[in-house]
Amino acid sequence: MAPSFVIAQLCDFVDIDGPLLLKRDHVDGLNYRSGVVDVFDASFWG
Description:
single chain, about 15% strand, globular
């Protein structure tokens, strides 16, 4: 979803909530709050 998040900056609306359906996700991945995805830390990219 992180690459989708970058491209989504060009859109008015996007649906990138797939990780919310996972039992476990990447540690320190995207943060979802009140329907908005927070910007992730640069260390996420490695």
